[in-house]
């Protein structure tokens, strides 16, 4: 990992900026004062995908959720685990009626049992019965969406306006923000653009951010509780460092550059911050790590590329621990 402190003044491409925003949110959320939370990126629904998602949690309940599993639950698994009864019951009596055939619920019961999340048995009339091993906690406090635009000029603001109007009217998130890079002008350009007044604006400068415009608190529909929980589970599962899963850290040119407190992927061959689209199997500059690299201080099961994955995974778990403790971010 190289030190790019001398390049910290450069304006980042959108992908690198997005990672810096995620790292800032992980360390310093919320602008009004520290709140236990974790961060994910590129999540949403069929209608809308957000750049950054911050899930604020109840620390004690979050600890109980982590005790259930360190992996996120998909929609089917969540339905079964969340409604698992304390005593043996036929699955149809425990789970709210789905909008699809009941037969599709049974595999999720078997899967949950295989993961140790519930117990199952054959009851009377050979019915599938199950019960919980531990209650599913009410761990999500709030869901916050952030759109990242390092250069929020007039054209970028126009492109965002309709999406943000949708976010405000739909109110799936409790708050909506736009993060942009500060310019140092007397009046930041973002404040002059035609954005919904309910949307907050964050000015990002290096490792810090300031509130240029405070958001309004939205009122999510109680009917969306399950959708919000599915979103939170996906965020818990993925985090924001999962970008490495679709990149090539096993390439000899792959680096993690320091941008302040964030580690941002950089390509030494192209001398640029790459994106997931650029750092792919089709990249003509890809060169696999030399075998000798895997024998110089790195664990025998892999070279620097494997090490990058372990570093990012360890950082994700450390931040989960921080949210669980409910301590102030540092």
From TrEMBL:
<protein>
    <submittedName>
        <fullName>Uncharacterized protein</fullName>
    </submittedName>
</protein>
<feature type="compositionally biased region" description="Basic and acidic residues">
    <location>
        <begin position="310"/>
        <end position="330"/>
    </location>
</feature>
<feature type="region of interest" description="Disordered">
    <location>
        <begin position="294"/>
        <end position="330"/>
    </location>
</feature>
<dbReference type="Pfam" id="PF19100">
    <property type="entry name" value="DUF5787"/>
</dbReference>
<dbReference type="InterPro" id="IPR043901">
    <property type="entry name" value="DUF5787"/>
</dbReference>
């Amino acid at each position: 990992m190289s030190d790019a402190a001398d390049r910290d003044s450069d304006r980042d491409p959108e992908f690198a900026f997005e990672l810096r925003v995620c790292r800032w949110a992980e360390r310093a959320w919320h602008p009004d004062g520290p709140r236990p939370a974790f961060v994910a990126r590129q999540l949403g629904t069929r209608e809308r995908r957000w750049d950054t998602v911050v899930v604020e949690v109840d620390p004690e309940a979050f600890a109980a959720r982590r005790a259930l599993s360190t992996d996120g639950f998909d929609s089917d698994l969540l339905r079964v685990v969340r409604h698992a009864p304390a005593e043996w019951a036929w699955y149809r009596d425990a789970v709210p009626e789905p909008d699809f055939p009941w037969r599709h619920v049974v595999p999720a019961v078997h899967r949950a049992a295989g993961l140790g999340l519930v117990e199952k048995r054959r009851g009377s009339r050979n019915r599938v019965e199950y019960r919980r091993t531990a209650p599913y906690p009410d761990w999500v406090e709030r869901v916050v969406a952030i759109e990242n635009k390092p250069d929020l000029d007039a054209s970028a603001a126009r492109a965002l306006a309709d999406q943000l109007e949708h976010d405000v009217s739909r109110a799936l998130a409790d708050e909506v923000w736009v993060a942009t890079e500060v310019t140092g002008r007397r009046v930041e350009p973002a404040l002059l653009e035609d954005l919904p007044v309910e949307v907050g604006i964050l000015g990002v400068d290096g490792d810090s951010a300031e509130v240029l415009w405070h958001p309004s608190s939205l009122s999510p529909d109680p009917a969306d509780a399950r959708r919000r929980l599915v979103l939170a589970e996906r965020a818990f599962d993925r985090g924001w460092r999962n970008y490495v899963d679709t990149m090539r850290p096993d390439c000899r040119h792959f680096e993690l550059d320091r941008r302040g407190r964030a580690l941002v992927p950089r390509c030494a061959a192209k001398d640029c911050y790459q994106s997931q689209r650029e750092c792919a199997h089709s990249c003509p500059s890809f060169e696999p790590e030399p075998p000798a690299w895997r024998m110089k201080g790195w664990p025998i099961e892999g070279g620097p590329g494997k090490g990058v994955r372990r570093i990012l995974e360890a950082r994700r778990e450390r931040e989960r621990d921080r949210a669980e403790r409910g301590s102030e971010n540092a």
